[in-house]
Amino acid sequence: MGKGKLAKFADMERYENVFQYPFSVADNVPFDMKGRWREMYFKNDNPIVLELGCGKGEYTVGLAKMFPNVNFIGVDIKGARMWTGATQALEEGLKNVAFLRTNIEIIDRFFAEGEVQEIWLTFSDPQMKNPRKRLTSTYFMERYRHFLQDGGTIHLKTDSNFLFTYTTYMQQHNNLPLLFRTEDLYHTEGLDPQTQEILGIQTYYESMWIERGLNIKYMKFSLPKNGELTEPEVEIPLDEYRSYHRDKRSPKTTAL
Questions:
Q1: Mean pLDDT score across all residues of the chain
Q2: Which listed residue (11, 108, 125, 247) is catalytic?
Q3: Which of 21, 71, 209, 236 is most buried, with most CB under 10 Å away?
Q4: How many helices (H) and strands (E) does the chain have?
């Protein structure tokens, strides 16, 4: 029988690879590792990559196993889900993995300028009703600029037509350098073996979406430090299906 939420949270309190700073305590509890993750936790000078909205942490752990000379930090507010990846990382002795349980809206409180090299957004909630909660919105891009190195890479892997279309418009509207883009990841030819291996890491929910016949989309682009960012003024059709564990979609058919 699997562990219940209370038991998982008890584990998380003692796990050395988990740091818990939800919004409710972030103002009152000092975070001494900002700008010092490599020195205080990883004990190396390797690059740092974040997965925001990491869920169970499958991607964070998968990437860490693939790239032992890169440090990976999974970020999410749902501790019971995060427990899965944190437990696996400890059991497998992965020293280049950490998990930060916090609200992504305050992510810039935990990292110093230029401390992070890449950000992964894997199957984020498209937030069709609220662009300020959309992790690829210019609101969040400005937050990422506080700690992402100049020209750092943003990866988006998603099942959502809405989120992928919105992000494409946002990237084009702001002239952010596009590095790669495909609307059907698993039927795209010409990918080099390492890229295929990286993008082939599948989360629990991704496998469900593939079974439902949904195309998986992927893009990556650079985020320069400077330059004004503005929201694209376009109407985008809403997704016609409901993703697992997401709120029922709006009765509207398009969103700005």
A1: 91
A2: 125
A3: 71
A4: 9, 10
